[in-house]
Amino acid sequence: MANEVNNFQELISHCKEYGYIFQSSEIYDGLAAVYDYGQNGAQLKKNIRDYWWKSMTQLHDNIVGIDAAIFMHPTTWKASGHVDNFSDPMIDNKDSNKRYRVDHLIESYADEQKAMGNEQLATALLSMMDVLLAKNDFAGLKKLIEDNKIKCAVSKTSNWTDVREFNLMFSTQIGSVAEESDTIYLRPETAQGIFVNFLNVQKTGRMKIPFGIAQTGKAFRNEIVARQFIFRMREFEQMEMQFFVRPGTQMEWYNFWKEERKKWHESLGVPAAKLRFHDHVKLAHYADAALDIEFEFPFGWKELEGIHSRTDFDLKQHQEYSKKKIQYFDNDLNEAGKPYGNYIPYVVETSVGLDRLVLTILSLSYAEEKWNKEDGTEDSRVVLRIPAKIAPTKLAILPLVKKDGLPEIARELMNDCKQSFHCFYEEKDAIGKRYRRMDAIGTPFCVTIDHQTKEDNTVTIRYRDTMVQERIALVEVKNLLTEKLK
Ligand code: ATP
Q1: 402, exposed or middle or buried, with CB in 10 Å at 0-12, 13-18, 19+?
Q2: Residue nearest to atom 29 of ligand 1 (CA)
Q3: Nearest protein CA to atom 25 of ligand 1, as residue
Q4: Distance of CA 222 from the midpoint of ligand 1 (Å)
Q5: Which residue's CA is the closest to the ligand 1 atom numbered 4?
Q6: What is the pTM of this model?
Q7: How far is residue 101's CA from residue 79's CA, in Å, rounded to a whole number?
Q8: Which atom of ligand 1 is closest in space to residue 353's alpha carbon?
Q9: CA-wise closest residue to 106 among 93, 89, 121, 125
Q10: Structural contact between residues 433 and 416, judged by C-beta atoms closer than 8 angstroms
Q11: Cα–Cα distance between 53 and 12 in angstroms, integer?
Q12: Residue nearest (by alpha carbon) to ligand 1 atom 19
């Protein structure tokens, strides 16, 4: 894929102009940190989701997929620890009343220091922050902010409140009477829908450990600092897989999934050099090991996916709160020749944000290109070099003119191809302009039907990435595309 986008704002404008991503409720001036996907964005997102779903469920014969509801019994979130623990340390600036997530505030300051060449200071600051976060030492975090004279971006002062916890779950009422017992939450992660269905799936699918349950779906978090476009939203989509394993084997599977998931990102066209692992120092309440797969976004290295060894925490909690036994009988034999017997499985989770993946692909794909033509004049284009297998539209079918029977041939080709892949038909404007539009949308192949087509049944195929054009037989178009999209 092409060079990274230097100006993030240009990518955001491009996404809007070409039907990828719009601000939600834009006509009412938008809703902060909520976005809508347009005709091209929705298709790109679906293609990435399908690619993930296929690789998880079809290509792993011990992983099945489910689709659990967003609403869940409120006790789910008590059991999972989200009611008590799903919070971030926050700090408010007293002059601007702006609220910050403490880790974000310190991280941006460290980024600034790095940019100014103070690499050592930045590294020391971040490792001190990690230690304090791990100890939940709020007074220490406030002191770190004050000692470094970290300022609010709005008021430019260091007049801070104490550090406090803020729960990120959205709540709402179910039923018509708004009593406290009716309060339910919008799920902040899809994982719990998998845990509460563990026995349903294991029994009905006759699944044998180790096995996985995958699902994709919306999750909701009342993020305080919601910025950087679709990187951090209040409503977003996750693609999660919980892998149930025999206790004691979790680190083996943790390492397996860590590598497997990195390879998966590379198979999607993300260069290895733009991916790295970041081990967690502060572990979540449920984890015995955790890491992030980070991607180098246009605004720096950030989490794209989390790999967590969640122990038996979740299943154990649901067993306790529901008072229903959640166990697995393992009849494989141990070293002593006896069945492993009954236990609560351990879990290794892979959790990736679909919207963050869309942003990853778009930021890698976006390129502004300039070159000199044969006559010496300059030409330019903006192109989205989205990998063909996930591009929203695969083939543009373009009759050179709107007459002389060319549209009829084009329509026939369209009818022949549209069952197999997504095509787009266009007969308006000069051909060069139509090519540029397809480049900007990221369509990898264009086929032009011209007068020669009527004579010898050949067409011009144009490749987005190289802009090379060649003549091929009309009957070959579908086969060629099918081959290229594999
Ligand atoms: P962060 O530290 O960036 O807040 P997290 O560690 O809270 O993320 P997880 O709970 O591990 O995230 O969620 C798994 C994945 O879901 C993340 O790797 C990310 O891709 C995605 N994700 C989490 N929060 C958001 C959000 N607010 N907007 C978009 N994607 C998100």
Answers
A1: exposed
A2: 232
A3: 232
A4: 12
A5: 232
A6: 0.89
A7: 25
A8: 20
A9: 125
A10: no
A11: 27
A12: 353
Amino acid at 403: K
Give the integer Cα–Cα distance in Å for 253 and 374: 56
Distances (CA, A) of 168 to 69, 115, 181: 19, 31, 20
Most ligand 1 atoms within 8 A of CB, residue of 235, 281, 303, 360 to mutate = 303
Per-residue pLDDT tens digits of the chain, which is 486 residues long: 344 445 899 999 999 999 999 999 999 999 999 999 999 999 999 999 999 999 999 999 999 999 999 999 999 999 999 998 888 899 999 999 998 999 989 999 999 999 999 999 999 999 999 889 878 899 999 999 999 999 999 999 999 999 998 889 999 988 765 555 678 999 999 999 999 999 999 999 999 999 999 999 999 999 876 678 999 999 999 999 999 999 999 999 999 999 999 999 999 999 999 999 999 987 877 889 999 999 999 999 999 999 999 999 999 999 999 999 999 999 999 999 999 999 999 999 999 999 999 999 999 999 999 999 889 999 999 999 999 999 999 999 999 999 999 999 999 999 999 999 999 999 999 999 999 999 999 999 999 999 999 999 999 999 999 999 999 999 999 999 999 998
Asked if residues 471 and 460 have their Cβ atoms less than 8 Å apart, the reply is yes
Q: Which atom of ligand 1 is nearest to the CA of 305?
A: 18
Q: Which residues contact 200 (CB under 8 A, 6 or more apart)?
A: none
Q: Is 211 left (phi over 0), alpha (psi -120 to 50) or beta?
A: beta
Instruction: Give the integer Cα–Cα distance in Å for 446 and 436.
Output: 11
Q: Which residue has the tokens 């979540």?
A: 284
What domains does the chain contain, in order, with CATH numbers? 8-73+185-361 (3.30.930.10), 88-161 (3.30.40.230), 393-484 (3.40.50.800)
Q: Which of 231, 236, 314 to mutate to test the pocket of ligand 1 (most atoms within 8 A of CB)?
A: 236
Distance in Å, CA 254 to ligand 1 centroid: 19
Residues within 6 Å of ligand 1 by CB: 189, 221, 223, 232-233, 236, 238, 303-306, 351-353, 355-356
- Whole-angstrom distance, CA of residue 144 vs CA of residue 149: 9
How far, in Å, is the centroid of ligand 1 from the Cα of 232?
7
Q: What is the DSSP letter of 274?
A: G
Q: Cα dist. 218→11, 45, 68, 152, 388 in Å?
A: 24, 13, 10, 32, 26
Measure the CA–CA gap between 11 and 3, rounded to whole angstroms.
13
CA of 353 to the centre of ligand 1 (A): 6
Please identify, by atom number, the ligand 1 atom nearest to the C-alpha of residue 221: 27
Quick check: 23 and 41 in contact, CB under 8 A? no
